[in-house]
Design brief:
The complex is a heterodimer of chains A (166) and B (280). Chain A is an all-alpha fold and 166 residues long. Chain A is built from eight helices and no strands. Chain A is globular. The chains are: A mainly alpha (166), B alpha+beta (280). Chains A and B meet through helix 1, helix 2, helix 3, helix 5 and helix 6 of A and helix 1, helix 3 and helix 4 of B.
């Protein structure tokens, strides 16, 4: 199938992830647009036959990281621009809004992994490949992210983490 | 504790619990985890909460999948961003980047609608372009059309480029990131300074960074460190021939952003993006 067509088909998934990642709809779509534009700019780097979805998420990751970095470097006072804005999903239940707000409070590096697994059903190996980090790092960030999310949602104390049982 | 197995089974780890929740645990280990959870209610609660998170995240964001596709995203996905006759409204952040997003797409619009309808500068401004803007425009006109050798050092050696230029200019220079404005760094080069520009017998050399957008349009940032300290000036605009230049001075460094291809507003967006990074 033509790559253009496949990329178009992946837009809804890129949008879903971006929305969860940055919170605000307009900014999320900007991130998607930047990602798509960058993907075409760098398309020669994509290996035909490899996973196009994972590659696009990699591009989005890089664009997002660069934006956060640029915002931190150049707008140190403008935290709102650097990180997620206040989420505003109209009509969402209180629990849903809590989830959005809690998600926004996670470090981006944890949020990404929690979302790639939850929304994209990526295997840990795919997440590792997409983000260019070791699989062990994926697991530890996922664990920390989920525990933090849980604590934020329910006021639960940071739990003892299971290292080894038996 | 974990079901009574005493063979050499690897111990249960946090990773196993994660994999259990995400359906990524090998079948063989699942029973082990279940037995563990049955015996540890707090752990079972924790795992239930993780599972709930996954479900709630899907519930919260799956709706996005069914939202109608904005045309701008479809165009970008098909690699034809910027082909529209008019730039689409594109809310962005930060605000300078919003305008800058048009800069590359602004090529056709700018050339057709912008300059040619208003070719005349005010007489007062003509001939008043100071050295910085003029030199920048000349350098832009000289190097931006280059196909094979647009720069001396490419963006693939950016750290080296910046270090080299900083050393030769005798001051720290930086190549701002203009990706948000649609421009990627091509590279840079060293150029002779303006002889006698500030009464200096041997003017320090100057630097030129070149950027290019996807459509192939180029802008150049000219950096001069040999400027008499004027504090900080506002943006000024000059045209030299068909090259538009926005320039500003920060203490002893002068900057000029030039283009022959994009309109004044688009160039202003790119210059503003650079300015905000260079003068935070």
């Amino acid at each position: 199938m033509d790559e253009r067509h496949r990329i178009v088909e992946l837009i809804p998934r890129l949008r879903r992830y971006a929305r969860a990642l940055v919170g605000d709809r307009a900014r999320a779509d900007d991130l998607v647009q930047d990602t798509l534009e960058r993907a075409w700019l760098k398309f020669h780097l994509w290996r035909p036959g490899s996973d196009l979805r994972a590659w696009l998420f990699t591009v989005m990751h890089n664009v997002h990281v660069n934006q956060i970095r640029a915002a931190r470097e150049h707008y140190p006072l403008d935290d709102e621009a650097a990180e997620m804005g206040v989420p505003a999903q109209q009509g969402a239940s209180i629990e849903m809004r809590d989830l959005e707000r809690s998600l926004a409070l996670l470090p981006a590096e944890q949020r990404e992994i929690v979302l790639l697994v939850a929304l994209e059903d990526m295997s840990y190996a795919e997440v590792a490949q997409t983000l260019g980090i070791p699989i062990g790092t994926v697991m530890s960030r996922l664990s920390r992210g989920r525990e933090k999310l849980r604590a934020l949602m329910h006021g639960a104390p940071a739990s003892v983490r299971l290292q080894v049982v038996k | 504790m974990s079901g009574g197995d005493d063979k050499a089974v690897p111990p249960l780890t946090e990773a196993d619990l994660l994999a259990y929740v995400d359906g990524q645990l090998p079948e063989a280990r699942r029973g082990e985890v279940e037995a563990y959870l049955a015996a540890h209610s707090e752990e079972a609660e924790r795992i239930a909460a993780w599972r709930h998170q996954n479900q709630e995240l899907r519930a919260l964001y799956d709706g996005v999948l069914d939202e109608p596709l904005p045309e701008r995203l479809r165009e970008a996905a098909e690699g034809r961003a910027g082909e529209s006759a008019a730039p689409l409204v594109r809310p962005r952040w930060p605000s300078y980047a919003r305008a800058a997003g048009y800069a590359c797409a602004g090529l056709a619009v700018g050339v057709l609608a912008g300059w040619q309808l208003q070719p005349a500068h005010t007489p007062a401004a003509l001939g008043a372009a100071p050295g910085l803007a003029r030199s920048a425009a000349v350098a832009h006109a000289t190097y931006s059309p280059e196909v094979r050798h647009p720069v001396e050092v490419g963006a693939d050696q950016e750290a080296h480029l910046v270090a080299w230029l900083s050393k030769r200019l005798g001051a720290q220079v930086r190549a701002p990131r203009l990706e948000a404005a649609g421009y990627s760094l091509v590279g840079g080069r060293l150029l002779p300074g303006e002889a006698g520009a500030e009464g200096s017998p041997t003017p320090p050399p100057v630097a030129q960074f070149m950027y290019q957008c996807k459509a192939g349009t180029r802008v150049t940032l000219y950096v001069s460190t040999g400027v008499a300290d004027q504090g900080e000036t506002a943006f000024r605009y000059e045209r030299e021939g068909n090259v538009g230049v926005f320039y500003w001075i920060d203490r002893t460094q002068g900057y000029a952003m030039s283009s022959a291809d994009i309109d004044k507003d688009a160039l202003l967006s790119v210059a503003t993006a650079a300015y905000k990074q260079l003068n935070p």
